Give the backbone structure.
Amino acid sequence: MLKERAKGNRISASKKQFIAWIDANTLSSGLDSYLKDVAAWRGETQLVLSLLDALHAGVATNNPDLVGRLVALLTDAAPLVADASVEVVLQEAVYLGNRLRGTAEGLATAQQLYVLIRKFGNRMTTSNVDMMVRRGKSYSRVGLDGLGILYDDHFDHAVSLDLPKHFVRVNLPEVAYYCALRVANRQAILRLS
């Protein structure tokens, strides 16, 4: 999974299984070395997985300072998969549901999300944005704030995701309108400059 993320292939957070086909020679040689290291928790893969697990715990316990340090460690250890931290926080936000607003833990999670969007927003996918914004047949206000940060800090990337079309497709016309308005306003400001 980490190799796929490093190649830029995103795996949905909702997936419970992931299958990767490997060459039989790789498997047999792996049994002599690499797979033994995996089983013994030696190597970069295990380090990254452990940091992601610790990040889950940091987010779940509402410890923003710890989350910041873990994201920094994750960025140092595996810069190509560090944006997975956004998904970790998004999963916690979805888990909190209605408690995301008006609670201390919700506020801490939202603040962590905003920091990570500023840092890794240029690597967010349409799926990440959808997970951030959509709540059943409605939308999250915290998700809309995050969407605003995405447009403010990573405008070109946000435009490349074609979010107005996506949110029309998933029957959230209010969010589609917001996205289209952000694009139109930016273009109008550029024309005036």
About this structure: The mean pLDDT is 79. The longest strand covers residues 134-135.
